[in-house]
Amino acid sequence: MKMQKSFLFIAVLAAGLASCHKLDVPITTQLTPSVYPTDSAQFITASGPAYVALRGNYAVEFFFQQTLSTDEAILPARGGNWYDGAQNQQMHYHSWNKDNNYVNTNWTWLATIIGVVNQELSILNADEPSTYSAKQQNLAELKMVRALAYFYMIDNYGNVPIDTVYGDFNAHPTVARAQVFSFLENDIKGCLPYLSRATGTATYGRMNLYSAYALLAKMYLNAQVYTGTARWNDCIAACDTVINSGLYSLAPLSDYLVMFYPTNGPTSLGSENEFIFAIPYDPNLTNNVFPFRAVNIHARYDVPRSEQAKFSLPFDPSAPESTIPSFYDSYFSWDKNDVRNGQWLTGLQYLKDGVTPVTVTTTNLGYNQFYTGGSPSASYTYQVNLSEAVTLRQDSALFDCGNDEIAWNMGYRDIKFYPDWTSTSRNQNNDEPVFRYADILLMKAEAILQGGTATNGQTALSLCNALRAQRTTSPAWTNVTLDSIYNERTREFTQENWHRNDMIRFGKFENAWGFKVDADVNHRIFPIPTTALTLNPNLTQNPGY
Fold first, then answer.
1. The model's pTM
2. Looking at CB atoms within 10 Å, which of 35, 410, 428, 485 has the fewest?
3. Around Cβ 104, how many Cβ atoms within 10 Å?
Protein backbone atom coordinates (compact mmCIF):
# COMPACT_ATOMS: atom_id res chain seq x y z
CA MET A 1 0.00 0.00 0.00
CA LYS A 2 1.28 3.47 -0.85
CA MET A 3 2.08 5.79 2.03
CA GLN A 4 -0.72 7.89 3.55
CA LYS A 5 -3.53 6.22 1.63
CA SER A 6 -5.05 4.52 4.61
CA PHE A 7 -6.57 7.67 6.08
CA LEU A 8 -8.96 7.88 3.15
CA PHE A 9 -10.63 4.67 4.07
CA ILE A 10 -10.99 4.90 7.82
CA ALA A 11 -14.71 4.44 7.87
CA VAL A 12 -15.27 3.92 11.57
CA LEU A 13 -16.29 7.54 11.92
CA ALA A 14 -18.93 7.47 9.20
CA ALA A 15 -21.95 5.30 9.76
CA GLY A 16 -24.47 6.41 7.17
CA LEU A 17 -26.22 9.18 5.36
CA ALA A 18 -29.67 10.09 4.20
CA SER A 19 -30.67 11.94 1.05
CA CYS A 20 -27.87 13.97 -0.55
CA HIS A 21 -29.65 15.83 -3.32
CA LYS A 22 -29.81 19.03 -1.25
CA LEU A 23 -26.71 20.73 0.01
CA ASP A 24 -28.12 20.55 3.52
CA VAL A 25 -27.41 16.86 3.92
CA PRO A 26 -28.18 15.01 7.17
CA ILE A 27 -25.05 12.95 7.81
CA THR A 28 -24.37 10.89 10.92
CA THR A 29 -21.02 9.68 12.21
CA GLN A 30 -19.66 8.11 15.37
CA LEU A 31 -17.43 11.07 16.16
CA THR A 32 -18.02 11.55 19.87
CA PRO A 33 -16.23 13.52 22.62
CA SER A 34 -14.34 10.38 23.62
CA VAL A 35 -12.64 10.18 20.23
CA TYR A 36 -11.92 13.85 19.47
CA PRO A 37 -8.50 14.16 17.85
CA THR A 38 -5.77 15.41 20.12
CA ASP A 39 -2.86 15.05 17.70
CA SER A 40 -2.24 15.12 13.95
CA ALA A 41 -2.46 11.36 13.52
CA GLN A 42 -5.88 11.28 15.15
CA PHE A 43 -7.04 14.17 12.99
CA ILE A 44 -6.16 12.16 9.89
CA THR A 45 -8.60 9.56 11.16
CA ALA A 46 -11.22 12.18 12.01
CA SER A 47 -11.01 13.77 8.57
CA GLY A 48 -11.28 10.42 6.82
CA PRO A 49 -14.99 10.58 5.84
CA ALA A 50 -14.53 13.87 3.98
CA TYR A 51 -11.73 12.42 1.87
CA VAL A 52 -13.58 9.14 1.34
CA ALA A 53 -16.53 11.14 0.01
CA LEU A 54 -14.24 13.22 -2.22
CA ARG A 55 -12.75 10.07 -3.70
CA GLY A 56 -16.28 8.92 -4.64
CA ASN A 57 -17.22 9.80 -8.22
CA TYR A 58 -14.04 11.57 -9.25
CA ALA A 59 -12.46 8.92 -11.49
CA VAL A 60 -15.61 7.49 -13.08
CA GLU A 61 -18.95 9.37 -13.19
CA PHE A 62 -17.39 12.81 -12.79
CA PHE A 63 -14.74 11.93 -15.36
CA PHE A 64 -17.42 10.93 -17.86
CA GLN A 65 -19.41 14.12 -17.30
CA GLN A 66 -16.33 16.29 -17.83
CA THR A 67 -14.90 14.29 -20.71
CA LEU A 68 -17.73 12.81 -22.78
CA SER A 69 -19.31 16.28 -23.01
CA THR A 70 -16.19 17.45 -24.91
CA ASP A 71 -14.34 16.49 -28.07
CA GLU A 72 -11.85 14.51 -25.98
CA ALA A 73 -13.75 11.23 -25.80
CA ILE A 74 -16.81 9.39 -27.03
CA LEU A 75 -18.46 6.31 -25.57
CA PRO A 76 -20.85 4.84 -28.15
CA ALA A 77 -22.87 1.66 -27.76
CA ARG A 78 -21.49 -1.49 -29.33
CA GLY A 79 -24.19 -4.01 -30.06
CA GLY A 80 -26.43 -2.51 -27.36
CA ASN A 81 -23.70 -2.63 -24.73
CA TRP A 82 -22.89 0.71 -23.09
CA TYR A 83 -26.03 2.45 -24.31
CA ASP A 84 -26.95 2.83 -20.63
CA GLY A 85 -30.18 4.72 -21.02
CA ALA A 86 -28.61 7.14 -23.52
CA GLN A 87 -26.51 8.81 -20.82
CA ASN A 88 -23.33 8.62 -22.93
CA GLN A 89 -25.11 9.59 -26.12
CA GLN A 90 -26.60 12.63 -24.40
CA MET A 91 -23.18 13.73 -23.16
CA HIS A 92 -21.81 13.64 -26.70
CA TYR A 93 -24.76 15.35 -28.39
CA HIS A 94 -25.25 17.89 -25.55
CA SER A 95 -28.82 16.65 -25.35
CA TRP A 96 -28.75 15.83 -21.64
CA ASN A 97 -31.69 16.69 -19.43
CA LYS A 98 -32.38 16.84 -15.71
CA ASP A 99 -32.76 13.04 -15.57
CA ASN A 100 -29.36 12.17 -17.05
CA ASN A 101 -27.58 9.76 -14.73
CA TYR A 102 -24.29 11.68 -14.66
CA VAL A 103 -26.11 14.94 -13.97
CA ASN A 104 -27.91 13.33 -11.03
CA THR A 105 -25.12 11.27 -9.50
CA ASN A 106 -22.53 14.02 -9.60
CA TRP A 107 -24.85 16.53 -7.92
CA THR A 108 -25.44 13.89 -5.24
CA TRP A 109 -21.71 13.24 -4.89
CA LEU A 110 -20.77 16.92 -4.49
CA ALA A 111 -23.67 17.59 -2.12
CA THR A 112 -22.57 14.64 -0.01
CA ILE A 113 -19.01 15.99 0.32
CA ILE A 114 -20.40 19.33 1.46
CA GLY A 115 -22.74 17.69 3.95
CA VAL A 116 -20.03 15.46 5.40
CA VAL A 117 -17.64 18.38 5.85
CA ASN A 118 -20.34 20.52 7.44
CA GLN A 119 -20.97 17.80 9.98
CA GLU A 120 -17.30 17.27 10.78
CA LEU A 121 -16.73 21.02 11.12
CA SER A 122 -19.70 21.34 13.45
CA ILE A 123 -18.47 18.62 15.78
CA LEU A 124 -14.79 19.46 15.75
CA ASN A 125 -15.28 23.20 16.08
CA ALA A 126 -17.60 22.81 19.04
CA ASP A 127 -15.87 20.06 20.93
CA GLU A 128 -12.30 19.59 19.80
CA PRO A 129 -10.15 20.75 22.75
CA SER A 130 -9.20 24.41 22.44
CA THR A 131 -5.80 23.47 23.82
CA TYR A 132 -5.12 21.42 20.70
CA SER A 133 -2.66 23.64 18.83
CA ALA A 134 -3.57 22.37 15.35
CA LYS A 135 -7.32 22.85 15.73
CA GLN A 136 -7.57 25.82 13.36
CA GLN A 137 -5.37 24.06 10.81
CA ASN A 138 -7.61 21.01 10.94
CA LEU A 139 -10.77 23.05 10.45
CA ALA A 140 -9.19 24.96 7.56
CA GLU A 141 -8.17 21.73 5.83
CA LEU A 142 -11.71 20.39 5.99
CA LYS A 143 -13.09 23.67 4.66
CA MET A 144 -10.79 23.31 1.67
CA VAL A 145 -12.31 19.92 0.86
CA ARG A 146 -15.72 21.60 0.94
CA ALA A 147 -14.37 24.48 -1.18
CA LEU A 148 -13.26 22.07 -3.89
CA ALA A 149 -16.74 20.52 -3.96
CA TYR A 150 -18.33 23.97 -4.21
CA PHE A 151 -15.97 24.88 -7.04
CA TYR A 152 -17.09 21.81 -8.97
CA MET A 153 -20.69 22.73 -8.15
CA ILE A 154 -20.50 26.22 -9.66
CA ASP A 155 -18.42 25.01 -12.57
CA ASN A 156 -20.95 22.32 -13.51
CA TYR A 157 -24.30 23.60 -12.23
CA GLY A 158 -23.89 27.37 -12.04
CA ASN A 159 -26.35 28.70 -9.47
CA VAL A 160 -26.47 26.48 -6.38
CA PRO A 161 -27.50 26.79 -2.72
CA ILE A 162 -25.02 27.80 -0.05
CA ASP A 163 -25.11 25.68 3.07
CA THR A 164 -22.43 25.64 5.74
CA VAL A 165 -24.43 24.79 8.86
CA TYR A 166 -24.86 21.18 9.87
CA GLY A 167 -28.27 20.50 11.35
CA ASP A 168 -30.03 23.20 9.32
CA PHE A 169 -32.29 21.13 7.09
CA ASN A 170 -34.34 23.98 5.68
CA ALA A 171 -34.71 24.05 1.90
CA HIS A 172 -32.15 26.64 0.85
CA PRO A 173 -32.81 28.67 -2.32
CA THR A 174 -30.59 28.77 -5.37
CA VAL A 175 -27.89 31.46 -5.12
CA ALA A 176 -26.44 33.28 -8.13
CA ARG A 177 -23.17 31.82 -9.39
CA ALA A 178 -21.28 35.09 -8.82
CA GLN A 179 -22.46 35.18 -5.22
CA VAL A 180 -21.36 31.61 -4.61
CA PHE A 181 -18.00 32.54 -6.15
CA SER A 182 -17.66 35.42 -3.67
CA PHE A 183 -18.59 33.18 -0.73
CA LEU A 184 -16.10 30.60 -1.88
CA GLU A 185 -13.30 33.12 -2.39
CA ASN A 186 -13.80 34.55 1.10
CA ASP A 187 -13.99 31.11 2.67
CA ILE A 188 -10.72 30.04 1.08
CA LYS A 189 -8.95 33.27 1.99
CA GLY A 190 -10.09 32.81 5.57
CA CYS A 191 -8.37 29.41 5.61
CA LEU A 192 -5.01 30.56 4.21
CA PRO A 193 -3.37 31.66 7.49
CA TYR A 194 -4.05 28.27 9.07
CA LEU A 195 -3.32 25.78 6.30
CA SER A 196 -0.26 23.57 6.48
CA ARG A 197 2.73 24.46 4.34
CA ALA A 198 4.09 20.93 4.57
CA THR A 199 4.45 18.76 1.48
CA GLY A 200 5.65 15.24 0.82
CA THR A 201 4.67 11.85 2.18
CA ALA A 202 3.19 13.05 5.47
CA THR A 203 0.60 15.30 3.83
CA TYR A 204 0.11 13.60 0.47
CA GLY A 205 -3.56 13.45 -0.59
CA ARG A 206 -4.55 16.22 1.82
CA MET A 207 -5.33 19.87 1.14
CA ASN A 208 -2.54 22.28 2.13
CA LEU A 209 -1.75 25.96 1.56
CA TYR A 210 -0.57 25.44 -1.99
CA SER A 211 -3.58 23.40 -3.07
CA ALA A 212 -5.67 26.29 -1.72
CA TYR A 213 -3.76 28.75 -3.91
CA ALA A 214 -4.06 26.37 -6.87
CA LEU A 215 -7.84 26.36 -6.36
CA LEU A 216 -7.90 30.15 -6.11
CA ALA A 217 -5.87 30.40 -9.31
CA LYS A 218 -8.37 28.13 -11.06
CA MET A 219 -11.26 30.26 -9.79
CA TYR A 220 -9.64 33.51 -10.92
CA LEU A 221 -8.77 32.00 -14.30
CA ASN A 222 -12.49 31.31 -14.81
CA ALA A 223 -13.80 34.41 -13.00
CA GLN A 224 -14.99 36.06 -16.19
CA VAL A 225 -17.11 32.97 -16.96
CA TYR A 226 -18.46 32.68 -13.42
CA THR A 227 -18.96 36.36 -12.52
CA GLY A 228 -18.56 38.45 -15.66
CA THR A 229 -15.43 40.13 -14.27
CA ALA A 230 -11.89 39.12 -15.26
CA ARG A 231 -9.38 38.49 -12.45
CA TRP A 232 -6.17 37.84 -14.40
CA ASN A 233 -3.78 39.54 -11.96
CA ASP A 234 -5.32 37.68 -9.04
CA CYS A 235 -4.76 34.45 -10.94
CA ILE A 236 -1.11 35.38 -11.50
CA ALA A 237 -0.62 36.24 -7.82
CA ALA A 238 -2.07 32.91 -6.71
CA CYS A 239 0.17 31.05 -9.17
CA ASP A 240 3.20 33.00 -7.95
CA THR A 241 2.60 31.84 -4.38
CA VAL A 242 2.97 28.24 -5.56
CA ILE A 243 5.90 29.00 -7.87
CA ASN A 244 7.79 31.08 -5.32
CA SER A 245 7.46 28.38 -2.65
CA GLY A 246 10.10 26.39 -4.52
CA LEU A 247 8.42 23.18 -3.36
CA TYR A 248 7.14 21.98 -6.73
CA SER A 249 8.69 21.27 -10.11
CA LEU A 250 7.84 19.73 -13.46
CA ALA A 251 8.32 16.04 -13.99
CA PRO A 252 11.20 15.59 -16.44
CA LEU A 253 10.46 14.40 -19.95
CA SER A 254 11.45 10.84 -19.11
CA ASP A 255 8.94 10.70 -16.25
CA TYR A 256 5.87 12.32 -17.76
CA LEU A 257 4.10 9.04 -18.55
CA VAL A 258 5.44 7.39 -15.37
CA MET A 259 3.77 10.16 -13.38
CA PHE A 260 0.39 8.50 -14.05
CA TYR A 261 1.45 4.88 -13.55
CA PRO A 262 -0.11 2.63 -10.88
CA THR A 263 3.10 3.19 -8.90
CA ASN A 264 2.61 6.95 -8.69
CA GLY A 265 2.42 8.70 -5.34
CA PRO A 266 4.39 10.88 -2.93
CA THR A 267 7.72 9.15 -3.53
CA SER A 268 7.47 8.05 -7.16
CA LEU A 269 9.19 9.48 -10.21
CA GLY A 270 7.57 12.63 -11.55
CA SER A 271 4.53 12.83 -9.34
CA GLU A 272 6.44 13.42 -6.09
CA ASN A 273 7.24 17.04 -7.04
CA GLU A 274 4.58 17.87 -9.62
CA PHE A 275 1.38 16.78 -7.84
CA ILE A 276 0.11 19.62 -5.67
CA PHE A 277 -3.05 17.77 -4.72
CA ALA A 278 -4.02 14.26 -5.77
CA ILE A 279 -6.79 11.82 -4.92
CA PRO A 280 -5.27 8.46 -3.92
CA TYR A 281 -6.72 5.18 -5.16
CA ASP A 282 -5.91 1.69 -3.95
CA PRO A 283 -7.58 -1.49 -5.28
CA ASN A 284 -6.94 -3.27 -1.98
CA LEU A 285 -9.18 -0.90 -0.05
CA THR A 286 -12.91 -0.53 -0.43
CA ASN A 287 -15.53 2.11 0.26
CA ASN A 288 -18.51 0.81 2.20
CA VAL A 289 -19.55 4.14 3.68
CA PHE A 290 -21.01 6.21 0.84
CA PRO A 291 -23.04 5.12 -2.20
CA PHE A 292 -20.26 5.82 -4.69
CA ARG A 293 -17.96 3.41 -6.48
CA ALA A 294 -14.83 5.28 -5.35
CA VAL A 295 -12.61 3.43 -7.80
CA ASN A 296 -10.21 4.16 -10.64
CA ILE A 297 -11.15 1.78 -13.47
CA HIS A 298 -9.74 3.53 -16.54
CA ALA A 299 -8.31 0.33 -18.01
CA ARG A 300 -11.78 -1.22 -18.11
CA TYR A 301 -12.94 1.54 -20.45
CA ASP A 302 -9.74 2.26 -22.37
CA VAL A 303 -7.91 -1.02 -23.06
CA PRO A 304 -9.19 -3.01 -26.07
CA ARG A 305 -10.52 -6.38 -24.97
CA SER A 306 -8.06 -8.02 -27.38
CA GLU A 307 -5.12 -6.62 -25.37
CA GLN A 308 -5.79 -8.15 -21.98
CA ALA A 309 -2.68 -10.32 -22.25
CA LYS A 310 -0.52 -7.44 -23.45
CA PHE A 311 -1.18 -5.54 -20.24
CA SER A 312 -1.36 -8.66 -18.01
CA LEU A 313 -4.81 -7.72 -16.76
CA PRO A 314 -6.73 -10.14 -14.49
CA PHE A 315 -10.07 -9.12 -16.02
CA ASP A 316 -11.56 -8.70 -19.48
CA PRO A 317 -11.45 -5.01 -20.46
CA SER A 318 -14.12 -3.75 -22.82
CA ALA A 319 -12.73 -0.43 -24.12
CA PRO A 320 -15.97 1.22 -25.22
CA GLU A 321 -14.43 4.68 -24.77
CA SER A 322 -12.19 6.23 -27.42
CA THR A 323 -11.37 9.62 -28.85
CA ILE A 324 -12.60 11.12 -32.12
CA PRO A 325 -10.31 11.79 -35.10
CA SER A 326 -10.38 15.59 -34.89
CA PHE A 327 -9.15 15.55 -31.29
CA TYR A 328 -6.19 13.28 -31.91
CA ASP A 329 -5.29 14.92 -35.21
CA SER A 330 -5.45 18.43 -33.76
CA TYR A 331 -3.38 17.92 -30.64
CA PHE A 332 -1.26 14.77 -30.86
CA SER A 333 -0.34 13.90 -34.43
CA TRP A 334 1.80 16.86 -35.43
CA ASP A 335 4.81 16.62 -33.06
CA LYS A 336 6.41 13.19 -33.27
CA ASN A 337 8.91 14.15 -30.53
CA ASP A 338 6.27 14.81 -27.88
CA VAL A 339 6.41 12.29 -25.01
CA ARG A 340 2.67 12.75 -24.46
CA ASN A 341 1.99 10.86 -27.67
CA GLY A 342 2.99 7.74 -25.77
CA GLN A 343 -0.29 7.62 -23.89
CA TRP A 344 -2.21 6.58 -27.01
CA LEU A 345 -2.97 3.20 -28.56
CA THR A 346 -3.31 3.70 -32.32
CA GLY A 347 -3.21 1.60 -35.48
CA LEU A 348 -1.68 -1.89 -35.60
CA GLN A 349 -1.19 -3.39 -32.15
CA TYR A 350 1.78 -5.38 -30.87
CA LEU A 351 2.66 -7.07 -27.60
CA LYS A 352 5.03 -5.34 -25.22
CA ASP A 353 8.04 -6.51 -27.22
CA GLY A 354 6.88 -4.20 -30.01
CA VAL A 355 7.34 -7.01 -32.54
CA THR A 356 4.76 -9.73 -31.92
CA PRO A 357 1.37 -8.78 -33.41
CA VAL A 358 -1.73 -8.82 -31.23
CA THR A 359 -4.04 -11.16 -33.10
CA VAL A 360 -7.63 -12.30 -32.69
CA THR A 361 -9.20 -15.41 -34.17
CA THR A 362 -12.92 -15.22 -34.79
CA THR A 363 -15.22 -15.96 -37.75
CA ASN A 364 -15.98 -13.97 -40.86
CA LEU A 365 -19.28 -12.95 -39.30
CA GLY A 366 -17.67 -12.27 -35.94
CA TYR A 367 -15.20 -9.94 -37.59
CA ASN A 368 -17.85 -8.15 -39.67
CA GLN A 369 -21.51 -8.54 -38.74
CA PHE A 370 -22.45 -7.31 -42.19
CA TYR A 371 -20.49 -10.08 -43.91
CA THR A 372 -22.44 -11.40 -46.91
CA GLY A 373 -20.04 -14.04 -48.26
CA GLY A 374 -20.67 -17.75 -48.38
CA SER A 375 -18.67 -18.75 -45.28
CA PRO A 376 -19.97 -16.79 -42.28
CA SER A 377 -18.71 -19.40 -39.79
CA ALA A 378 -15.26 -19.84 -41.33
CA SER A 379 -12.31 -19.01 -39.10
CA TYR A 380 -10.78 -15.56 -39.52
CA THR A 381 -7.57 -14.37 -37.84
CA TYR A 382 -6.43 -10.77 -38.00
CA GLN A 383 -3.94 -8.40 -36.37
CA VAL A 384 -5.72 -5.86 -34.19
CA ASN A 385 -5.75 -2.50 -35.94
CA LEU A 386 -7.36 0.38 -34.06
CA SER A 387 -9.01 2.60 -36.65
CA GLU A 388 -9.23 6.32 -36.07
CA ALA A 389 -12.81 6.76 -37.23
CA VAL A 390 -15.86 5.96 -35.11
CA THR A 391 -18.91 5.08 -37.21
CA LEU A 392 -22.45 4.40 -36.00
CA ARG A 393 -22.84 1.58 -38.51
CA GLN A 394 -25.44 -0.49 -36.63
CA ASP A 395 -27.94 2.12 -35.44
CA SER A 396 -27.28 5.86 -35.37
CA ALA A 397 -30.43 6.53 -33.33
CA LEU A 398 -29.13 4.22 -30.61
CA PHE A 399 -25.57 5.55 -30.91
CA ASP A 400 -24.42 2.05 -31.88
CA CYS A 401 -21.25 1.07 -33.77
CA GLY A 402 -22.10 -2.63 -33.93
CA ASN A 403 -21.14 -5.81 -32.11
CA ASP A 404 -18.25 -7.22 -34.11
CA GLU A 405 -14.49 -6.91 -34.17
CA ILE A 406 -14.62 -3.93 -36.52
CA ALA A 407 -16.81 -2.06 -34.05
CA TRP A 408 -14.72 -2.94 -31.01
CA ASN A 409 -11.57 -1.69 -32.72
CA MET A 410 -13.01 1.71 -33.64
CA GLY A 411 -11.27 4.72 -32.18
CA TYR A 412 -7.85 5.48 -30.72
CA ARG A 413 -7.54 4.71 -26.98
CA ASP A 414 -5.90 6.84 -24.31
CA ILE A 415 -4.12 4.85 -21.58
CA LYS A 416 -2.63 7.80 -19.69
CA PHE A 417 -3.63 6.19 -16.39
CA TYR A 418 -1.66 3.12 -17.35
CA PRO A 419 -3.35 -0.26 -16.75
CA ASP A 420 -2.53 -1.65 -13.34
CA TRP A 421 -0.83 -5.00 -13.86
CA THR A 422 -0.63 -5.52 -10.06
CA SER A 423 -4.35 -5.32 -9.33
CA THR A 424 -6.40 -8.46 -8.79
CA SER A 425 -9.52 -6.66 -10.01
CA ARG A 426 -10.40 -3.97 -12.52
CA ASN A 427 -9.75 -1.33 -9.85
CA GLN A 428 -6.43 0.46 -10.34
CA ASN A 429 -3.77 1.81 -8.00
CA ASN A 430 -3.15 5.00 -10.01
CA ASP A 431 -3.63 8.19 -8.00
CA GLU A 432 -5.38 10.98 -9.89
CA PRO A 433 -3.96 14.51 -9.75
CA VAL A 434 -6.38 17.39 -9.26
CA PHE A 435 -3.76 20.17 -9.31
CA ARG A 436 -0.33 19.84 -10.91
CA TYR A 437 2.55 22.27 -11.16
CA ALA A 438 2.20 22.20 -14.96
CA ASP A 439 -1.26 23.70 -14.53
CA ILE A 440 0.15 26.52 -12.40
CA LEU A 441 2.58 27.47 -15.18
CA LEU A 442 -0.02 27.33 -17.94
CA MET A 443 -2.63 29.22 -15.90
CA LYS A 444 -0.12 32.01 -15.31
CA ALA A 445 0.85 32.05 -19.01
CA GLU A 446 -2.79 32.31 -20.05
CA ALA A 447 -3.53 35.06 -17.53
CA ILE A 448 -0.54 37.10 -18.77
CA LEU A 449 -1.61 36.70 -22.39
CA GLN A 450 -5.14 37.75 -21.46
CA GLY A 451 -3.79 41.07 -20.16
CA GLY A 452 -2.44 40.32 -16.70
CA THR A 453 0.87 41.77 -15.55
CA ALA A 454 3.92 39.56 -16.01
CA THR A 455 5.95 38.91 -12.84
CA ASN A 456 9.22 37.31 -11.78
CA GLY A 457 10.68 37.88 -15.24
CA GLN A 458 8.35 35.22 -16.62
CA THR A 459 6.40 35.72 -19.83
CA ALA A 460 3.67 33.63 -21.38
CA LEU A 461 6.24 32.37 -23.88
CA SER A 462 8.90 31.51 -21.29
CA LEU A 463 6.37 29.66 -19.12
CA CYS A 464 5.09 27.59 -22.06
CA ASN A 465 8.62 26.80 -23.19
CA ALA A 466 9.58 25.77 -19.65
CA LEU A 467 6.81 23.19 -19.77
CA ARG A 468 7.49 22.07 -23.32
CA ALA A 469 11.17 21.56 -22.54
CA GLN A 470 10.02 18.67 -20.33
CA ARG A 471 7.50 17.30 -22.81
CA THR A 472 9.18 17.33 -26.24
CA THR A 473 12.60 17.44 -27.85
CA SER A 474 11.28 19.70 -30.62
CA PRO A 475 12.58 23.30 -30.76
CA ALA A 476 11.21 25.88 -28.34
CA TRP A 477 8.37 28.11 -29.44
CA THR A 478 9.21 31.56 -30.76
CA ASN A 479 5.77 33.01 -30.14
CA VAL A 480 2.64 32.10 -28.21
CA THR A 481 -1.06 32.81 -28.70
CA LEU A 482 -4.17 31.98 -26.71
CA ASP A 483 -4.93 29.21 -29.17
CA SER A 484 -1.49 27.68 -28.71
CA ILE A 485 -1.95 27.78 -24.93
CA TYR A 486 -5.32 26.09 -25.34
CA ASN A 487 -3.72 23.42 -27.52
CA GLU A 488 -0.94 22.90 -24.97
CA ARG A 489 -3.43 22.58 -22.12
CA THR A 490 -5.33 20.00 -24.15
CA ARG A 491 -2.21 17.91 -24.72
CA GLU A 492 -1.04 18.23 -21.14
CA PHE A 493 -4.25 17.52 -19.24
CA THR A 494 -6.01 14.90 -21.36
CA GLN A 495 -8.07 12.61 -19.09
CA GLU A 496 -7.58 14.91 -16.06
CA ASN A 497 -11.09 16.42 -15.87
CA TRP A 498 -10.14 19.92 -17.08
CA HIS A 499 -10.97 19.91 -20.80
CA ARG A 500 -14.63 20.90 -20.46
CA ASN A 501 -13.61 23.78 -18.20
CA ASP A 502 -11.01 24.88 -20.77
CA MET A 503 -13.35 24.59 -23.76
CA ILE A 504 -15.93 26.83 -22.10
CA ARG A 505 -13.37 29.47 -21.10
CA PHE A 506 -11.88 29.57 -24.60
CA GLY A 507 -15.29 29.74 -26.29
CA LYS A 508 -14.99 26.35 -28.00
CA PHE A 509 -17.72 24.38 -26.21
CA GLU A 510 -20.33 25.27 -28.83
CA ASN A 511 -18.18 24.00 -31.72
CA ALA A 512 -19.22 20.92 -33.71
CA TRP A 513 -17.25 17.67 -33.25
CA GLY A 514 -17.92 14.01 -33.86
CA PHE A 515 -21.69 13.67 -34.29
CA LYS A 516 -22.44 16.72 -32.14
CA VAL A 517 -23.70 19.96 -33.70
CA ASP A 518 -25.39 21.58 -30.67
CA ALA A 519 -24.36 25.21 -30.09
CA ASP A 520 -26.67 26.16 -27.22
CA VAL A 521 -24.72 28.33 -24.74
CA ASN A 522 -27.11 27.21 -21.99
CA HIS A 523 -25.36 23.85 -22.12
CA ARG A 524 -22.20 25.34 -20.64
CA ILE A 525 -23.77 24.29 -17.35
CA PHE A 526 -25.86 21.23 -16.59
CA PRO A 527 -29.45 21.25 -15.32
CA ILE A 528 -30.25 20.88 -11.67
CA PRO A 529 -31.41 17.24 -11.50
CA THR A 530 -34.99 16.19 -11.00
CA THR A 531 -34.27 14.45 -7.70
CA ALA A 532 -32.73 17.63 -6.26
CA LEU A 533 -35.69 19.73 -7.39
CA THR A 534 -38.07 17.25 -5.82
CA LEU A 535 -36.29 17.30 -2.48
CA ASN A 536 -35.76 21.06 -2.47
CA PRO A 537 -38.62 23.03 -4.08
CA ASN A 538 -36.72 26.29 -3.46
CA LEU A 539 -34.20 25.46 -6.17
CA THR A 540 -34.57 27.28 -9.47
CA GLN A 541 -33.82 25.38 -12.68
CA ASN A 542 -31.03 26.67 -14.90
CA PRO A 543 -31.97 28.53 -18.11
CA GLY A 544 -32.73 26.37 -21.13
CA TYR A 545 -33.84 23.31 -19.17
1. 0.93
2. 35
3. 21
